[in-house]
Amino acid sequence: MNDSKLYVGNLPYSVNKDQLTELFGGVGEVVDAVVITERDSGRSKGFGFVTMVSAEQAQKAIEEFNQKDFNGRTLVVNIARPKA
User: Fold this and answer.
1) Can you identify the CATH homologous superfamily of domain 5-77?
2) Positive or negative, the Cα torsion across 74, 71, 26, 5?
């Protein structure tokens, strides 16, 4: 289980990987960020994943961004669960 990988939901559809990296970079070091897109259209599905350098930084990011407004949307940020 990777406690440094975060699920980021309810993203504005306009947000890209760079903006996600910049946002979360404000609380710690971002190892990886990805916005999930639809295979056919390439359009954002409104969620993504951010991997922080440590579980501590991931926890700090949750405290900083979960239920906070970002470009008019209330973000949902929590530890990513493995695919079922």
Assistant:
1) RRM (RNA recognition motif) domain (3.30.70.330)
2) positive
